[in-house]
């Protein structure tokens, strides 16, 4: 194992530094080679600059060296792997299924499809903005280093520590929740075949079995991440194939099966205009003399707020497209291909998610039947019941097998992306035991970072045992920190490093600042939604602890900022510290 946090420059001392942003002369989505500044460090420690042009072969690694890091990860990924990293990690086909009941509950079909449409547009805009960050700084650690640059010389360190803790929390929680989701689809078969064994998560015996199986699934997820990096392309391909097959079967098979049902399809009027406000619960319950809820005196959750809560279902589906940035240091021509991977994965995911939302709404059974299926406490995954109802027992088993393997590979790719993020953060000493975590194998793989993800995810899964609510609260925190990261990056670019941020090959041109405004407003809004209560009336058992978890993680970030010596932190020092010399930093 070799320790990798810092780097020696090439013998001749040439390093690559991107130019300052000048969006007025750049075109949207440009990807041509950019003019760069080549820094020559003389024997007396001074720096001289000359103009030059970067090549795809050396510019990304030269940039990494100029920042004080040694390129140690294997660089074999191409655009397909970059695209697949984000697209498969998001897996919006599974995401829409997992959140569909929430989408219909808050405001009804009209609120759901509108929120999904707006989410798709704003997420794509956010991804385009993040692509600019990635193109300028295509390194492992991605959002962490982007935040350091966006915060400038005064706030960059604090911003980077915040984003480091937020993002690692989001991704490790995502891995644990995906493992559990995979298990829920497995046990969802029990109730559909009429087995008397309880799969109600209020049953502690079932939770114990659920926990054991989830831990076993996690072990296999981690083991698959130990394969040599050259085999990852097959994992990406298999995951993409399963998602494609899943999507096509839904588009073709589900409508055919629905057409054979006596109730047939929902009307276009119901899908596009129907509002439902009595499913979200009461913000204040009033009981009659018999102890029952008095529907006339109790207050429903406000209608406008229900429309806002619909974004809890939609925004949580299209998030995580920064995964392409996490593996940028392993991607060839990363300043171009990783940036494209972020944008096109978000765009494609938005189209897929919206089309599935409309499809599921048209194939939705009558509301009473829907409620009996989707809110069946006897099943840990109600969508298994939905497929069983529409496709029949045999048909739904085929779909469920595909879903289980799809979620499994979803978790595998999530660990892949997360491990690169953790590695990138650890080599700056931001995390506990950073020296050990930032070590890589001879094959250029951050295996210790993978081990850390396994330990943390396994501990998170243990929260299933005392209460299903405890684990659900942790899962609810998976999306909120990511939205906070995206919003903070946009804020930094708009108000701190407005015209000082480095320029990469991917440029939005005149659209850069307007897109940043949209990114800031949208992600701030969905962050607020994701930390708000979404079960009513609010009690201790259904309280959304995302705000508590995000707050606690933020406190850790503040403590690290105060405790960890500035001398151990590299990030944006290569640009703002006049005493910084990358070729004097030792491994």
From TrEMBL:
Residues 18-28 have a biased composition (Polar residues). InterPro entries: AA/rel_permease1, Amino_acid_permease_CS. It is a multi-pass membrane protein. Pfam families: AA_permease_2. The keyword Transmembrane applies. It comes from Schizosaccharomyces octosporus (strain yFS286) (Fission yeast). It comes from the Eukaryota. The lineage of its organism: Eukaryota, Fungi, Dikarya, Ascomycota, Taphrinomycotina. Residues 1-28 are annotated as: Disordered. One of its GO terms (molecular function) is high-affinity thiamine:proton symporter activity. Keywords: Amino-acid transport, Membrane, Transmembrane, Transmembrane helix, Transport. This is Thiamine transporter Thi9. GO terms for cellular component: medial membrane band; plasma membrane of cell tip. Belongs to the amino acid-polyamine-organocation (APC) superfamily.
